[in-house]
Amino acid sequence: MTNTIADITTQSDVIVLVGSNPEEAHPVLGMQIRKAVETGTKLILVDPRDIGLAKHADIHLKLNPGTNVAFAHGMARVIIKEGLMDWEFISQRTEMEQFHQYAKMVDAYTPERVAQICGIDQRDLVAAARMYAKAKAAPIVYCLGVTEHSTGTEGVMSLSNLAMIAGKLGRPGCGVNPVRGQNNVQGACDMGAMPTDFTGYQKVANPDVVAKFERAWGVELNPNVGTKATECFPKMIQGQIKGLFIFGEDPVRTDPDTNHVIRALESLDFLVVDDLFLTETAKYADVVLPGISFAEKEGTFCNTERRVQRVRKVVEPLPGAKPDTWIFTQIMNRMGYEQPELTPAQIMDEISALTPSFGGVSHQRLDSAAVGGRGLQWPCPSADHPGTPIMHVGKFARGVGAYSLAEYRPSVELPDEEYPLVLSTGRILYHYNACAMTDKVPGLNQIANRSFIEMNQKDADELGVSNGQMVKVTSRRGQVTVEARVGTKVKPGQTWMPFHFQDGNANQLTIAALDNIAKAPEYKVCAVRVEPA
Q: How far is CA 485 from CA 425, 480, 523, 526, in A?
């Protein structure tokens, strides 16, 4: 996030919430957004479903799944055509030649055209653009409803374009703010859990960066960019990847096209899974290493607002379960790399020494009264630096802001005669992600313990399906039988399922199409048919 949670929920006049259901997926943040809206902050909701916040929204753009880029370009055209852009910000802080190219490109995204693509009222689009542009402080907040598309990265960049032309970056109550999908996703990215980056987004493609880490670690490093997680599965089937170490992930439950994932795992010569429980994926492993939970370890997490916070051990692990760092150290030593066992504090010191944006972060400082348990927000380059609540104040890291010139592209798989409905997937309040932990809680299972599909009343009537009836849902990849929940939460032609439950896992249906840049799966759009079971 470019700004803080408190900044977004207390300093803004308008919140633009795109592809995010924070009341259910991020309930702590969701409660704060709801409170802000109930006390006067205006809300522009951009979401295909009638989520809980829809009844509080000033404008709800109930757009078709997969049309975020068109929506953003349509907003931008209104802002530019009506002279509502922040010309001072544009001229001083962004690439002017690119801005003119961008303005020319979005000129084709008229309200009429965007309304047709997105399935919305063009008057609502125009009103939303005016409301956002005229607000003194207005953050864009987005989540997986933007990123989990074959055009997900382009969707994010199109929202960044909007913030730049409106001059809403580097100021309180503004910014472009992703709500991370799981705990410490931000921290994992910060620590180089991507094949393109070392810690702090230092690029593998930069020879100077590689040389720095080679000197620090005393080894020769592979200078080539590696393989992204979602790209591994085809390579397993092709025999290019023969062994895999899965750490805290359950792709059999969470990745698209479950049968494809299982086939890939069964193609491996050797699979290791390190996790708290015997997950669906762990059932396919040759070796399972019992990990430990957050309450049994020392270290840090970095949350969605870039805040590095201490995690402290409060209970002893079960016999045989080991800290992640112990496991990794043992494997390094047994594979021939001499690695002394370091404490979490010593590891944090190494991170700080090698990562400019974490240069002022240490356990000692995080534990000090001066920080007071609040943590530090990176960039925090030195021990006397207070951290950075708002990014891009005064200038961007690259100097001036660049515009994305990506056109709208339809999703990979659209409805047809055989599969006439669109399926999107997501989360519900009562369960967390793959249910690895929450399905162990009897109380939660009493509330929600089975899969379902949301349908529009019009589609249900045409198919002879009633509310509560069991239905077969079929895609080109698989079939599940689940309960139908009929109403108006989704529009005609659209359906929605949670992916938590194994009795009818939506990922048996989803398509393994990937974003062309980040390689995130397209969980939000695939074609299905529904019929009475």
A: 14, 15, 20, 19
